[in-house]
């Protein structure tokens, strides 16, 4: 129920009005005056209560029972059929000799207001490898260096750090456990990608995890000879994402969003070096303490610990 701000009676107030008349013996004029409504209104609610009981005191829909000017159902189905064929509003209106505004209203009611809605969304990819170490997602996030807090904190775009340059966070995340790692490198070239991969593999090795394959996008650093040569030397299979399909590497993409929200832009840093110094602290909190929704709100390290226990008992 959506009452307007000047409503004198709510369903509870109507019931009180009826109660004063039928049980307390007040005259209808007196009960109407006490409720601040007209005598005609009071008689209306009395009549509804006598005819329908307590349900008669509820608000009724203002929608008419019939609408002589409504668009015929057969014509409405033709509008939807032509819209499914990707016709524009004006094309449909000219073909069926009707107003474009009417076409727009019918199409919007059917949920085909945008052309993108004509094609059903692809199912969400929830696949994951069963064991830690089966697949390592790699990705890169470019962040600007700064010497003073930027406009995200101060709101002043006049204070900039011109010429400070960029730094690149090379992230890695295990597909099964969601345990993540990352290192901040000066660029996104093949040498930096190799260095970041070696750092990640050393970190996971301390947790007892060894990988068999890595997944990357089609960035130039991951297609470089240096990176391919390193993968061959380590015996890692290289899996690439489909072009222009970031959802294939969705776990890394989602981790980057979380890192930006909870680390990079979560507080005011005096300079980018201070932000970089806080990276490993936040990463430890993410892996060991932060609850993860896809892991039944347990931290990512719980899956690796559970996997190690299963391996010891098997």
Uncertain runs with pLDDT below 50, 5 residues or more?
309-314
Query: Distance between termini?
Result: 61 Å
Rg measurement, Å = 33 Å
How do the helices and strands follow one another from N- to C-terminus?
Answer: HHHHHHEHEEHEHEHHHH
User: Judging by the overall fold, what is the CATH architecture of the largest domain?
Assistant: 2-Layer Sandwich
What about the largest sheet? 5 strands, mixed
The top-level CATH class of the largest domain is Alpha Beta
Here the CATH topology of the largest domain equals Nucleotidyltransferase, domain 5
Strand order of the largest sheet: 3-2-1-4-5
InterPro entries: DNA-bd_IS481-type, Homeodomain-like_sf, Integrase_cat-core, IS481-like_transpos, RNaseH-like_sf, RNaseH_sf
Pfam families: LZ_Tnp_IS481, rve_3
Organism: Frateuria flava
Domain Integrase catalytic: 126-308
Description:
This is IS481 family transposase. InterPro entries: DNA-bd_IS481-type, Homeodomain-like_sf, Integrase_cat-core, IS481-like_transpos, RNaseH-like_sf, RNaseH_sf. Residues 126-308 form the Integrase catalytic domain. With 314 residues, the chain is an alpha/beta fold. The chain has 3 domains: 11-57, Orthogonal Bundle (Arc Repressor Mutant, subunit A); 73-117; 136-313, Nucleotidyltransferase, domain 5 (2-Layer Sandwich), CATH 3.30.420.10. The protein has helices at residues 11-22, 28-35, 39-52, 73-84, 89-96, 100-110, 151-154, 190-206, 225-234, 250-264, 272-277, 279-288, 301-313; strands spanning 136-144, 166-174, 180-185, 213-216, 237-240. A 5-stranded mixed beta sheet has the order 3-2-1-4-5, with helices on both faces. A hairpin with a 5-residue loop joins β2 and β3. α2 packs across α3 (39-52). The radius of gyration is 33 Å and the shape is elongated. Mean pLDDT is 89; it is low at 309-314.
């Amino acid at each position: 129920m959506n009452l307007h701000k000047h409503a004198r009676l709510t369903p509870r107030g109507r019931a009180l009005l009826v109660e004063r008349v039928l049980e307390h013996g007040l005259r209808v004029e007196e009960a109407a005056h006490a409720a601040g409504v007209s005598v005609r209104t009071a008689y209306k609610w009395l009549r509804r209560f006598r005819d329908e009981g307590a349900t008669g005191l509820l608000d009724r829909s203002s929608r008419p029972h019939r609408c002589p000017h409504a668009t015929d159902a057969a014509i409405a189905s033709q509008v939807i059929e032509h819209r499914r064929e990707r016709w524009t509003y004006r094309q449909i209106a000219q073909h069926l000799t009707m107003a474009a505004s009417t076409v727009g209203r019918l199409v919007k009611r059917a949920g085909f207001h945008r052309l993108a809605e004509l094609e059903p969304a692809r199912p969400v990819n929830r696949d994951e490898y069963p064991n830690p170490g089966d697949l390592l997602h790699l990705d890169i996030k470019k962040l600007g260096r700064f010497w003073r807090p930027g406009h995200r904190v101060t709101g002043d775009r006049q204070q900039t750090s011109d010429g400070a340059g960029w730094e690149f966070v090379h992230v890695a995340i295990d597909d099964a456990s969601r345990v993540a790692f990352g290192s901040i490198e000066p660029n996104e070239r093949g040498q930096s990608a190799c260095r970041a991969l070696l750092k990640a593999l050393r970190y996971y090795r301390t947790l007892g995890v060894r990988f068999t394959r890595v997944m990357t996008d089609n960035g130039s650093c991951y297609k470089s000879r240096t990176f391919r040569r390193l993968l061959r030397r380590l015996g890692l299979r290289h899996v690439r994402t489909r072009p222009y399909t970031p959802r294939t590497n969705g776990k890394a993409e989602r981790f980057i969003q979380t890192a930006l929200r909870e680390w990079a832009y979560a507080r005011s840093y005096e300079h980018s070096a201070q932000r970089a110094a806080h990276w490993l602290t936040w990463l430890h909190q993410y892996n060991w303490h932060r609850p993860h929704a896809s892991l039944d709100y347990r931290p990512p390290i719980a899956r690796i610990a559970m996997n190690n226990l299963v391996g010891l008992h098997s």
